[in-house]
Write a structure and sequence with these properties.
38% of the residues lie in helices and 34% in strands. By secondary structure, the chain is α/β, with parallel strands linked by helices.
């Protein structure tokens, strides 16, 4: 099992959380908790940098949906960055590309 490493970096408008490793059934509780623990104010942005993900299953998709729902409830926003071609395809298939904003890089997401 490949662990999941999360690194949080503050930005002027919120924060970037880089996810490195596998976002799956075993690691999604860690990701859920880490994202719930973030302090976001109305108008701020959470960027999830997924460039380091090597795998994402349905539990990982649930983490992304939960992050979206949480940012919406806080009147903040969520952006995904560096989404692999495989994950982008899955997001399209399940329709999440309609509600999640995707940027090529975390830097592009921060600049908005």
């Amino acid at each position: 099992m490949n662990p999941l490493d999360l690194t949080t970096s503050p930005t002027e408008r919120g924060c970037v959380v880089a996810m490195i490793g596998e976002l799956d059934f075993h690691t999604s509780p860690l990701a859920h908790q880490a994202l719930r623990d973030l302090s976001l104010l109305p108008g701020q942005q959470l960027v999830l940098d997924l460039g380091g993900l090597t795998f994402c299953d349905s539990s990982g998709l649930t983490v992304l949906v939960a992050a979206h729902n949480r940012t919406q409830s806080l009147q903040a926003s969520l952006a995904l960055a560096a989404v692999s071609d495989n994950l982008a395809r899955i997001l399209r298939i399940v329709g999440l590309d309609q509600i999640l904003t995707v940027y090529e890089t975390a830097e592009a997401a921060v600049l908005g």
